[in-house]
TrEMBL record:
Assembly: Homodimer.
Gene3D superfamilies: Isopropylmalate Dehydrogenase (3.40.718.10)
Family statement: Belongs to the PdxA family.
Keyword Glycoprotein among UniProt keywords: no
Cofactor(s) the protein requires to work: Zn(2+); Mg(2+); Co(2+)
Catalysed reactions, semicolon-separated: 4-(phosphooxy)-L-threonine + NAD(+) = 3-amino-2-oxopropyl phosphate + CO2 + NADH
Cofactor note: Binds 1 divalent metal cation per subunit. Can use ions such as Zn(2+), Mg(2+) or Co(2+).
Location, primary (coarse class): cytoplasm
Note: The active site is located at the dimer interface.
Protein's recorded name: 4-hydroxythreonine-4-phosphate dehydrogenase
Keywords: Cobalt, Cytoplasm, Magnesium, Metal-binding, NAD, NADP, Oxidoreductase, Pyridoxine biosynthesis, Zinc
Name of the gene: pdxA
């Protein structure tokens, strides 16, 4: 099994310390190598400097395997330095290149700080997902949040709630459903995915009494695109996420950000994983940010990163 590439993310955040904690937890069961500046790791970290990612499998048994990139400035916990922006971007690019070349089985990305990237390198993307799509030459990708209890996909993501009805089009919903079904088949090993689609309005519109989108176009679209996967809905979102309902589908397609993220963060806050579907390679990420307020204190919870690395490994086995 090829190792997983872990890009360093924002060096002033909790990324370096949770990387060490994840390595200590996974060293013999899920080998990965960290791409970044070794000087940004916590003092006393056992490090194995690599020339070849393949060496990470053996090196991981006794030290954190590191593929070194020299950054422009030291890292001060909680204080992002725009001078390091180019290095953060280069680490992501290096990880993607290694996955595309076959030297790594997947890329897992530690959290970035977009303002520092904009200030220091003119970063032109809303976030990781869009940057990875550009590196892969893909126009459309899908964000999935996944844990052992639930997988959710929001059709619209970081926009105001008032903008959702305009942004949510038949084309967008169709692409979201089709990319999700393909991702579950190709990267999760689910031969015939079962997808449940939420309604946009309360009670899925209740026959038009609380909104017309479900009857006017969502339900007809779902009937039109049923194929090599099981597709049900539109369902009232308030009855989709209890245990018995979750047992009936492999992923829930939601209409907007909070409709998707509130259930998974309520069910499994510490172990949620961000997965990008629609890329020609496997990408996972912990479902949290840089946490500047606790960076460098040694108290950051590595559970989401550990889950992201394990999920990347499982997806690589299933692909």
């Amino acid at each position: 099994m090829r190792p997983i590439a872990l890009s360093c993310g924002e060096p002033a955040g909790i990324g370096p310390e949770i990387a060490i904690a994840a390595w200590d937890h996974l060293r013999e069961t899920c080998p990965f190598f960290w791409i970044g500046d070794p000087g940004h790791l916590p003092p006393g970290t056992p490090v194995a400097i690599l020339d070849d990612p393949a060496a990470a499998i053996q090196a991981s048994k006794s030290a954190l395997p590191v593929l070194p990139l020299r950054f422009a400035a030291p890292a001060s916990p909680g204080q992002p330095d725009p001078r390091n922006a180019a290095g953060v971007i280069a680490a992501i690019e290096r990880g993607v290149a290694l996955v595309q070349s076959g030297a790594a089985s997947a890329i897992c990305t530690a959290p970035i700080h977009k303002k520092a990237l904009i200030d220091g390198a003119g970063f032109a993307y809303p976030g990781h997902t869009e940057f990875l799509a550009a590196l892969a030459g893909r126009d459309r990708v899908v964000m999935m949040l996944a844990s052992a209890q639930l997988r959710v996909v929001p059709a619209t993501i970081h926009i105001a709630l008032a903008e959702v009805p305009r942004a949510l089009t038949p084309t967008l919903l169709r692409e979201t459903i089709e990319i999700t079904a393909a991702g579950l088949r190709d990267q999760f090993g689910i031969a015939r995915p079962r997808l449940a689609v939420a309604g946009l309005n309360p009670h899925a519109g209740e026959g038009g009494a609380m909104g017309r989108e479900e009857t006017d176009w969502i339900a007809p679209l779902l009937q039109e695109i049923k194929g090599e996967f099981t597709l049900t809905g539109p369902h009232p979102a308030d009855t989709m996420f209890h245990a018995a309902a979750r047992a009936r589908y492999d992923a829930a397609i939601c209409m907007y950000h909070d409709q998707a993220l509130i259930p998974i963060k309520t069910l499994d806050f510490d172990r949620g994983v961000n997965v990008t579907l629609g890329l020609p390679f496997i990408r996972t990420s912990p479902d949290h940010g840089t946490a500047f307020d606790i960076a460098g204190q040694g108290i950051a919870n590595p559970s989401s990163l550990i889950a992201a690395l394990r999920m990347a490994q499982d997806m690589a086995h299933s692909a």
